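Researcher: We're teaching a course module on how sequence relates to structure. For the next exercise, students receive a sequence and then see the predicted structure as tokens, so they can try to spot secondary structure elements on their own. Here is the exercise chain.
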Amino acid sequence: MTPLSGPAKSALRMRAIARRHAYVLLRSPHRLFDVTLWPLVDVVLFGSLATFVGTPHASGAAKASGYLLAGIVLWHVIYQSQIALSTGFLEETWTRNLLNLMVTPLRETEYVGGVAMFGFVKLVMGVGVMVLAALAFFSFHTWSLGFGLVPIAAVLLVVGWAISLLVMGLVLRFGTGAEAMAWGVMFVLLPLSGVFYPIEALPAVLQPIAYALPTTHAFAALRSLVDGHGMDWVQLALAAVGTFVLLALSLWFLVTMLRVFRKRGYITRYT
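Model: And here is the predicted structure for the students to work with:
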């Protein structure tokens, strides 16, 4: 039998990690809450708000309605990608499995890749529920916004992964007490990113912070699609550059915290 090459071994290890997390999900159906009930509740909540503000047939009300529904669907791209990767790592701390992982041939990149593969499946499930619910309950055709949704969703997907790497670094450095950041960061990012409104609606003191976020520019590009103006390539480019910078900083932070984790023996926190 021909021995497997390095990349083939890495692919097998990533698939093994993804299958392990899938098994945990299937054995604990309540974990489907994040990709079934929660997205459904969000669509009903924000769709009902969209119906309310869109009742007067003014152009401003119609735009606000589109902002709400398109915004919440695309918000779940970043939310699902971030939560799936963060909680996938937190599972290892909750079950005290980190030491087992560290003594296997598994590389850190292979582990992250495997969890990201599984997280992508959850992402498709969660966003799929929202798209179908928006269509069934509010006759909102998400795909009517066109192909421009694809690059916007790709940017938000990578932002979610970058935030999860930051959370993983914080957990490695400060322990499971930092796990609150997995959800806390998202609640901070939601209003500052202008998911449902232009940034000009924020208090003036917060606007410079909002403009520094790549998510702000991604959702600005989304609003351009909702308004029927086509893709705002300038905003998309700003979002892509900001995402690259955020990902690079997150990787640097995670590698640094992993080095500290090993040097100071923080593994004893999880065993």
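Model: If you want an answer key for the exercise: The chain is about 75% helix and 0% strand. Residues 59-94 form the longest helix (36 residues).
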